[in-house]
Amino acid sequence: xxxxxxxNHAGVDSLAVDLQSFEADIRIGGILVGGTSIGSIAMDNLxxxxxxxxxxGH
Length: 58
Known about the structure:
By secondary structure, the chain is mostly beta strands.
């Protein structure tokens, strides 16, 4: 994983993240929407590969 500063399309500094490979099993015990539970979620063998992201806000 590489993390660095890079400009977005508007030229604003952003957090850049490049992932070569990320693998995980994820479990979320409870999801609330408007204070009401809509259940849980599980993902086995989640794989994210060759991904680049720019994260920015205002």
